[in-house]
Amino acid sequence: MTQTRDVFQAIADPTRRQIIDMLARESLNVNAIASEFNITRQAVSLHVQFLNECGLIVIRQQGRERYCEAKLDKLNEVTAWVDQYRKYWDKKFDSLEGYLEKIQKKKK
C-alpha cells in the first residue's frame, strides 16, 4: 500500500511550515534552507521532498544546484476546509447573539 501525502500532513509539521514561509519569499536551494535549521541537511531534504510530493513546492535544477519554489495555490485546499467550519461557527454565533438580545429585551 502506497502512502499518499497531502497538504494537511505537510502543514502539520512546524519545520515544513517554516520552509514554506521561507520559500514564499524567495526561491532557495536546499543548502540555504538547511542553514536556517538546527537539524541535519538530510532531515531538511526529507522535509523538502515531502513538500514536493504534496505539491506545495517545485524543485528546479539550475546547473549543479536544485532550487525550491513555493506553489502556494495548493493551500487553497486548507482554506476551503477551514471556511466550511468558519461558516458553521458564524451561524452558531449569530444564533447565540440573537438569543442573548432576546433575553436582554425580556429583562427590561
Automatic annotation (TrEMBL):
InterPro entries tied to this protein: ArsR-like_HTH, HTH_ArsR_DNA-bd_dom, WH-like_DNA-bd_sf, WH_DNA-bd_sf
HTH arsR-type domain mapped to chain residues: 1-90
Classification via NCBIfam families: HTH_metalloreg
UniProt-recorded name of the protein: Transcriptional regulator
Source organism of the structure: Niastella koreensis
